[in-house]
Amino acid sequence: MSRREVIALIFSVDVALALCDAEIVLGSGDFAAVSNNWRKTMTIICFIRYQIDPFQREQFKKYAENWGRIIPRCGGQLVGYFLPYEGTNDVAWGLIGFESLAAYEKYRARLRTDSEARENFAMAQTNRLILREERNFVEVVDGTFGLPSTLAGPA
Question: Class of 42-139 per CATH?
Answer without folding.
Answer: alpha beta
